Structure prediction request, 202 residues.
Amino acid sequence: MANAFIAPDGHPRCQWCGGAAEFLPYHDHEWGFPVDDDQRLFEKLCLESFQSGLSWRTILNKRENFRAAFHHFDFNKVAGFDEEDVQRLLQDAGIIRHRGKIEATINNARCAQEMVVQEGSLAAFFWRYEPDSASLPAPQTQTTSPESIALAKDLKKRGWKFFGPTTAFAFMQAMGLINDHSLNCITRERVEQARAAFQRPS
Prediction:
């Protein structure tokens, strides 16, 4: 079957999830399912930023280490990190030891706090950028969109760092703002059902 990975259960999935064994459970249970939990949204924002220039496999394999290092991405705790924490994280071999990305995560945690005050929640803000599904091109044929460009621009204006249009689009794919599973992927229908039942935050 073209543009499909046939999983061990004999059913087709998105082609990319055949690239590594750890991709399949992530694909089947997380990628594309709608999320309205602020802590999970913030985690994904941070991990997408850390991925910049790297593979998602690298980040996925280190995800539990990142969670331990950043208090499970509780942005109210991360916002209080100081230079001593930066130095601690730079010595942590379990994560990506990139000062700019570490400092951006702390900066973005403070921006997240401000966003909650201004918007009510991170979810309420991000779900405003959900595109009209009827206007979307074929799945996995783009790496940015008008919505991801607008989202990145808005975040930059609000002081967020390490979050451009491509990162924004990957975030939207993963957090279910769009269903970008391949048309022949068995998980696509499950995601569509989850999105139909999902109550958009306001």
Q: What stands out?
A: The mean pLDDT is 96. The chain has one domain: 36-177. The beta strands are 4-6, 12-14.
